[in-house]
Amino acid sequence: MTSADLTDEPVARQQAADWYRSAVTYQLYIRSFADSDGDGLGDIGGIRSRLPYLASLGVDAIWINPWYPSPQADAGYDVADYRNIHAPFGDLQQARALIEEAHAAGLKVLLDVVPNHTSDEHPWFTAALASPPGSPERDRFVFRPGSGPDGDEPPNDWQSVFGGPAWHRVEGGEWYLHLFDVKQPDLNWDNPEVRAEFESVLRFWFDLGADGFRIDVAHGLIKDPALPSLNLSQQQILARVKVPDHPYWDRPGVLDVWQEWRAVGDSYDPPKVFVAEAWVESSARLAEYLRPERLHTAFDFELMRARWHAKELRETARISLEAHDSVGAPVMWTLSNHDVTRHVTRLGRPQQRTSGSNAPEFPQGETDVALGTRRARAAILYALALPGGVYLYQGEELGLPEVEDLPEEVLQDPTWERSGHTERGRDGCRVPLPWQRGGPSLGFGDALGWLPQPASWGELSVEAQEGDPGSMLALYREALRLRRELPQLGHDGGPLVWTGEEDQVLGLARGNGFVCVLNTGAVAVPLPPGRVVLSSSPLEGELLPPDAAAWILVDQD
Ligand code: ISL
Q: pTM for the complete prediction?
């Protein structure tokens, strides 16, 4: 070893630790990615067989949604055993092999940890049911006596995110809290045993090779011990009024948990990383989760909620960047995930704000898929040009739209039942991927998938898009290739300068010579002089058409 090597060692170590700051991470919704054994459910074997696809796409990391043993009442977010693999997905040996193969292909692997609740089939919960009120077994969850003269009313008025009351009465008279499905009892994070158990779970997977975790409902966990009712009117719920000192979302105590988890991650070399799923009221609140001693990253849900309007897209990014910069954290831009309507569809709907709400809601109404697709092509060029990292949701690189016409009898999201069949839920963004033009499930597997795919998806399959330079897949591959190649891009590339303050056109320059222009207006616009290295739609002569973005290496003076 030379003295130069020795001097560079801390730098190399820091670089290895900082991989996440610019990373493009591919969200793998395991049950819908690829099915290797023909049971209609995706699995670890399917992921392993498609690692070359992910490597050739050019992503840096994968995040795998929960793959633990589970009755699947909420697609695996109801975990019955945190240290094993759901048998239809594979086993621990396959999980280890997948992580090793991913690493060999240059991909980091993030797993998904669900700390707010377990499954009602977790041994802790069955023990709690078998134990009397006041027992240590019950104290791991949130059990309370009911209200009303006979205790047959719930302890308070909290509602489940999926609809209906957030309490369920058990034999013997007590009620337990479930902020999500009745099969997802909330854990009591004031109980030290709960904290110790999750630290041990983190270490279990870190020791197996995982590079980090996505944290489910990272704004949850801690509840006001007084369990006060919210006392909101139906009108206030619909208007999404802000509740100061909310009794269960974004309570300051949750930040202590993240500080403890950070210490666990930092005890590894290179350190393990976290990305929080935290639906909080502002980027400023999110930044609290990202102070240096807390979590490394969190999904940015602001861009996802912004309307298709250059000024709004610019101001939204500006606010997110400022908040993250204030704590030294990179933003993790996200356009879609397994909980929201796919963005081809969102962007193809009328982009008005819902009246009565401060926050822009997800658009509703008729979808123009061709328009949404053009905008989705532009949106990804915008996100990839911003400082920070980007999360891609499987299938967005194929331009998949939301499946809006799933027959009612196939719907599986608990939201459908719990809302009394008024909310169809999230199945429309979870339909198995099309890999080929034909076959029983378009190459997803040898049998029909767990949700039916539209026949038209054959033409959106990987097979159909391979080799078509105008396809969404080709655009993603080229954008990711350029993002790696151009020194101006990524989190620590060139400094960002916004160019122009127009309503319908935004420009952002990164460092020396790179500009991204996004046109959300109705007329084509001129571009700065230079070489267009990528554009989401063909230029009209020298002009950038509506609903398009371009990357330009500008002429230097
Ligand atoms: O709490 C919310 C609003 O304040 C919800 O948006 C909530 O954060 C979101 O539903 C959490 O989603 C995650 O946990 C759920 C699971 O169903 C989702 O798939 C997962 O992404 C329960 O584990």
A: 0.96
